[in-house]
Amino acid sequence: MLEVKQVSKLYGNDRGVHNIDFSMQRGEIVGFLGPNGAGKTTTMRMITGYLNPTHGQIWVDGHSMSDNPKKARRKIGYLPETPPLYPEMTVQSYLRFIANLRDVPAREQKLRVGEAIDKLGLQGREKQIIRSLSKGYKQRLGLAQAILHQPDLLILDEPTSGLDPKQIIEIRQLIHELGENHTVLLSTHILPEINAICNRVLIINQGRVVLDERPEHLGRTMGETFEVSLEVKGPRERILHELRSLPSIGEVKEVDAPEAGAAAPAASALESLESAESATDEATDVPAVALSSAPAESVKLLVTSADRAEDIREALFFRLASAGLPILAMKRESLSLEDIFLKLTTDEPADTSKEEGDTDA
Ligand SMILES: Nc1ncnc2c1ncn2[C@@H]1O[C@H](COP(=O)(O)OP(=O)(O)OP(=O)(O)O)[C@@H](O)[C@H]1O
Q1: Residue 16 Cα: closest atom of ligand 1
Q2: Where do transmembrane segments lie in this chain (predicted)?
Q3: Ligand 1: which residue has its CA nearest to atom 11?
Q4: Which residues' Cβ are closer than 6 Å to ligand 1?
């Protein structure tokens, strides 16, 4: 659907974008991420034909943007960061005007405008002056103008920027729906947006693409080791022994391990309750109640795969089950998109905090 081949735009002093190279298949929703000034808008403006590359070629559905710009642009719907709206017009008259500009045949215009209004939830606002629309509705109208001429490829430059959280969710949902019939490239600063709607992520930094991957493969691409957090019920030493004797396991780390020399909390609670019980047997039955609700001993661990990428969850399950050590919780840990973004776009060490992965047990 889209081929961006070795495209550069040089503004001097090494600013601009350099050798951008990627392609998009029909139906993909690609998130385009990068810090301020990384080159997202420049790249999007070249794809939409508003800016000529210094070097390189862009094809949209087989049409070269430099040799056949009219045909290539016909395939694209573009929502720039600031939607090109005319505040004095009504929603309907604006969309009719845009339909004319985009050469939508006169007999189809009413139908196309009606479809765009329906798809973007603008019903009931056809006669409203654009100036009086909320920012969220202006953004809906921006999306409506982008799809009016039935393009295959949508280029959306920060479509949720400046919206409140409710509007963000609504616009995200609309983009998700538009993605059912369009190929979408959207730039954003909001990282969870990528996980919510995109099936691929492109990260650009200082004018160069530094990552092109599906969200579920990010960890593997970044050389992440498969890691699982576990809570297992049973005696600590036995649990550690079972885990350490599993060949597929690399490192076993205790989380919140008791300090050396200190008794295990559950065991010491049990001992003190038992002695309290014998001392207060006749006076009160409180200790007996407390004893029955004492927490069972469990150990929290972080376990990594010996083979880095190998999924160790099944091996853990079968080994601990056969040893009669119940797993109370098991969760795959993975690098967050924030960690990866920071790692690739700053010199600062990435935050090593983990977040839940997509494929939790
Ligand atoms: N017209 C221009 N003249 C000179 N330099 C420019 C021009 N437009 C962009 N640049 C420079 O090119 C680089 C990329 O800018 P661009 O606006 O594409 O980044 P961006 O990723 O869209 O940033 P933001 O997230 O802040 O919108 C920056 O260094 C910017 O200063």
Answers
A1: 12
A2: none
A3: 16
A4: 11, 15-16, 34, 36-42
> Ligand 1 center to residue 337 CA distance, Å?
23
If one residue of 11, 17, 81, 156 were mutated to test the ligand 1 pocket, choosing by the most ligand atoms within 8 A of its CB, it would be 11
The 3-state secondary structure of 218-273, one letter per residue = HHHHCCCCCEEEEEEECCHHHHHHHHHCCCCEEEEEECCCCCCCCCCHHHHHHHHH
In the three-class reduction of DSSP (H, G, I as helix; E, B as strand; rest coil), residue 160 is classed as coil
Report the alpha-carbon distance of residue 194 to residue 184 in Å, rounded.
Answer: 12
pLDDT of amino acid 258: 55
User: How many C-beta atoms surround the C-beta of residue 236 within 10 A?
Assistant: 18
**CA 61 to CA 40: how far, in whole Å?**
21
Overall fold of domain 2-218: Rossmann fold (3.40.50)
Distance from the CA of 290 to the center of ligand 1, in angstroms? 65
Query: For residue range 234-272, what is the model confidence (pLDDT) as tens digits?
Result: 999 999 999 999 999 999 999 876 554 444 444 433 333
pLDDT, tens digit (0-9, with 9 covering 90-100), for 47-79 = 999 999 999 999 999 999 999 999 999 999 999
**Residues 88 and 42: beta-carbon distance below 8 Å:** no
pTM over 0.95: no
Domain ranges for the chain: 2-218, 227-269+296-356
Would you identify the CATH topology of the domain 227-269+296-356?
Answer: Alpha-Beta Plaits (3.30.70)
d(CA 78, CA 146): 5
